[in-house]
Task: inverse folding
């Protein structure tokens, strides 16, 4: 265990926090909410030096308690000071944080924990109570943020006191390929999978994000998705933790968000399309200008152009809205700005050409191969497709993770090795490159609708119908076995229509579908009051669930 503050000889993402503490020690690292008085949120703040010192104390306490190098540790803390300090403390100790979205549901959460087999569980009192009552991971080392209710272990104050028995900076001399964290996917389009992150992946993500979006030290970030907030201290940004439920971004109060942005002079906003839609509608209706914001970054799903335009109206003229494309397994892959999504690009999307997700983020390498649901072991066995032809998106780059935890079959399905020993990740998406080198996303591979006559891709088809002024969104699903599926369009109307209006909307949509080759075969339209969406971003439509519902409706 190295006790030096200079981290240049190791590959550990916590070294970035140490470096920022050395460079801007008395600058504020985090503003975090501690309560609410009336309509005003009460915040406390911590400097870079204090955050670094607190994480050192926690790291020394963790090591003394037996949570050291290589120890998998479930982390279920609410966003705030302890969340940041503990996360970096785990890295400093060489332990392996296990992150599972608590919003995925009790059964999937228990399944993920059983799969991860953590040797420690660090959580708030509520999480520890659930762990005990529901039988999650018994017999592990416990650290509780908040009151302990008789389940043993240490509370976070005791852990800190344990760490204060010694002094000095802590940094495990981890290697580039050493396991750094286990991050579970949300399972929105399949079973949740544990993505194995190595330290080099985190280092590369920080470098690529800074370069792609020109992020500068000293900026102020409002991250509404907690895991992404963890990059802020590494990039030298001040984090403002919003007062909201991160598992329900679509329910965030836009008035509180605006208040926080204005109060702290936020320059960067990171959020899901659902949250940014709520914020954009509010700022538009109230004629609010967010004068300090330089950029908005959205992820989780493609951001509708209408949402981008609303945000552009409320931002300064030289600000930009970005939609990076990627996944838990590989992020960022590409990125596109609102400025690039001009009227011509909008029109192509509206006529069924797909969603433009921009150019590859350097130094990623992206190719399009023929679609297959089978394992592909060697890249030489792939059929690489030319410009303009839809196929499966595969990527090779420094943030691309290599394996899923304890899931060799899923790893085989998702990875391809080329003759140079490089590994390519299969994104599970279909798309194509245009003649300008921009990638166009057409939908999830698993959600394509295939029959004897054609193959339909969800994002291409839905965009054709989404232009209807009385439609909130649509979802293409297939009924029947693959190869003989009947395409069905599910429609979520903006407002609950009566029978006459529903008939008129249905007629309009059928006529609209006939005007484009991609949608002419759609004859079945079903209305659904509120689509199921993913827990993490409230943006990805649960088309698998809608397909089951549609099959019952048409039976």
Result:
């Amino acid at each position: 265990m190295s006790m030096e503050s200079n981290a240049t000889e190791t590959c550990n993402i916590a070294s970035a926090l140490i470096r920022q503490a050395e460079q801007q020690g008395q600058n504020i690292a985090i503003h975090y909410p501690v309560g609410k008085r009336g309509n005003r949120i009460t915040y406390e703040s911590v400097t870079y030096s204090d955050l670094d010192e607190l994480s050192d104390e926690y790291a020394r306490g963790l090591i003394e308690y037996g949570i050291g190098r290589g120890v998998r540790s479930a982390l279920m803390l609410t966003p705030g000071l302890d969340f940041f300090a503990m996360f970096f403390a785990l890295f400093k100790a060489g332990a392996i944080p296990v992150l599972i979205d608590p919003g995925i549901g009790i059964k999937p959460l228990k399944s993920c924990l059983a799969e991860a087999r953590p040797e420690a569980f660090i959580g708030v009192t509520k999480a520890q109570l659930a762990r005990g009552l529901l039988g999650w991971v018994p017999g592990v080392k416990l650290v509780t943020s908040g009151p302990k209710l008789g389940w043993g272990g240490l509370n976070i104050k005791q852990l800190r006191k344990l760490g204060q028995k010694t002094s000095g900076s802590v940094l495990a001399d981890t290697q580039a390929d050493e396991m750094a964290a286990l991050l579970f996917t949300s399972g929105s389009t399949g079973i949740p999978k544990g993505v194995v992150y190595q330290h080099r992946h985190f280092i590369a993500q920080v470098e690529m994000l800074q370069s792609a979006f020109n992020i500068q030290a000293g900026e102020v970030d409002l991250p509404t998705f907690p895991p992404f907030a963890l990059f802020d201290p590494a990039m030298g940004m001040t984090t403002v933790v919003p007062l909201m439920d991160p598992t329900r971004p679509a329910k965030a109060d836009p008035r509180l968000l605006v208040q926080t942005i204005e109060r702290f002079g936020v320059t960067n906003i990171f959020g899901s399309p659902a949250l940014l839609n709520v914020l954009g509608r509010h700022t538009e209706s109230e004629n609010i200008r967010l004068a300090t914001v330089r950029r908005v970054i959205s992820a989780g799903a493609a951001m509708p152009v209408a949402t981008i335009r609303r945000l552009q109206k409320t931002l300064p003229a030289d600000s930009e809205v970005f939609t990076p494309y990627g996944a838990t397994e590989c992020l960022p892959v590409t990125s596109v700005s609102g400025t690039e999504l001009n009227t011509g690009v909008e029109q192509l999307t509206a006529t069924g050409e797909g969603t433009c997700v921009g150019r590859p983020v350097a130094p990623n390498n992206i190719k399009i191969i023929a679609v297959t649901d089978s394992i592909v072991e060697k890249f030489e066995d792939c059929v690489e497709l030319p410009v303009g032809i839809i196929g499966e998106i595969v990527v090779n780059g420094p943030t691309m993770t290599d394996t899923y935890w304890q899931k060799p079959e899923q790893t085989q399905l998702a990875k391809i090795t080329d003759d140079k020993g490089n590994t390519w990740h299969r994104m599970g998406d279909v798309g194509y490159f245009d003649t300008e080198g921009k990638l166009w996303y057409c939908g999830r591979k698993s959600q394509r609708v295939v029959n004897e006559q054609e193959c339909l891709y969800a994002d291409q088809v839905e965009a054709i119908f989404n232009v209807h002024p009385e439609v909130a969104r649509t979802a293409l699903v297939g009924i029947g076995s693959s190869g003989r599926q009947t395409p069905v369009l599910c429609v979520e109307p903006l407002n609950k229509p009566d029978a006459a209006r529903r008939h008129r909307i249905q007629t309009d949509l059928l006529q609209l579908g006939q005007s484009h080759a991609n949608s002419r075969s759609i004859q079945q339209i079903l209305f659904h009051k509120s689509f199921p969406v993913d827990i993490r971003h409230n943006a990805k439509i649960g088309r698998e669930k809608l397909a089951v519902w549609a099959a019952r409706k048409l039976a």
In short: Residues 177 and 198 are 5 Å apart (CA to CA). The chain has three domains: 14-199, 214-328, 465-554. The longest strand covers residues 423-433.
